[in-house]
Amino acid sequence: MTAREHAAAPPPDAPARFAALQARVAELGSVIVAFSGGVDSSVVAALAHRALGGRALAVTAVSPSVATGELDGARAVARHIGIAHEIVRTDELARPGYRANGRDRCYFCKSELYEVLAQLARQRGFAHLLSGANQDDQGDWRPGLRAAAEHGVVHPLQDTTKAQVRELAHLLRLPSAEKPASPCLASRIPYGTRVDPATLRQIDDAERGVKALGFPVIRVRHHGILGRLEVAEPDLPRALEAEPQLVDAIKRAGYRHAVIDRTPFASGRLNATIVMP
């Protein structure tokens, strides 16, 4: 076993933890999984498929807010798991609260998602909606959890840490076990700056250009005519060496100016100034 394989190997108690979670999901009878293809929802989809078989359905929502390539990734993970998988379209941009981009933007995004999924569940006779929210999400600013509560969404991983979720993903050999988080493209836009389709496309184009140069874990923060690139810490020295190429890739997406942030990428940075209620 290589050092990398050893580091990724799940601990001895992972199978028992998965079995306990599977038993809880089995009690639900039938479920629709809000399935992005990320590690959290992938583990929930695997739980649901093993517990309920054909009474579990993974559903992926697509909209202008979803980064290019995410749907293809979700399809691949669903095939690996073996769970039935469908695509729905959501229209969070039709909601004024989402477009306004206040600090509760995610509430309106998740409200749109869960309303669409709840309607599908009623039409198909599924009893519950499941999400991939985990224990670590409780400590961040997550207005989407309020929308989930309003729709009775069940969170099987709510007592499971992010690290434990990844352990379970490795146990199941899921393709998404080490997938970086890929939240809504609007998360790159500072609170208070309105969200519109053109801005979302611009961010997506800029990030695709940067990733094509070999930088997989990044964010392009939108500041009007400026695109500010954040790069994961291990890749930051290499990014600074390739700064002219990266700046050019961002400008090709329509930004007049582009810079590389000397501070490494950190998930949830826009939430850093929010005081938890």
Looking at the structure, what is the overall shape? Answer: globular
CATH class of the largest domain: Alpha Beta
Read across the widest sheet, the strand sequence of neighbours is 3-2-1-4
What's the overall average pLDDT, rounded?
Answer: 92
Overall helicity: 40-55%
Sheet with most strands? 4 strands, parallel
- Sketch the topology as an H/E string, one letter per element: HHEHEHEHHEHHHEEHHE
- Can you name the CATH architecture of the largest domain? 3-Layer(aba) Sandwich
What's the helix count? 11
Keywords for this structure?
13% strand, 2 domains, 7 strands, alpha/beta, Alpha-Beta Plaits, three-stranded mixed sheet, 277 residues, disordered C terminus, four-stranded parallel sheet
Topology overview:
Layout: H1 3-8, H2 14-26, E1 31-34, H3 39-52, E2 56-62, H4 70-81, E3 84-89, H5 96-100, H6 105-124, E4 128-130, H7 144-150, H8 162-171, H9 197-211, E5 218-223, E6 226-231, H10 236-241, H11 243-252, E7 257-260
Parallel strand pairs: 1-2, 1-4, 2-3, 6-7
Antiparallel strand pairs: 5-6
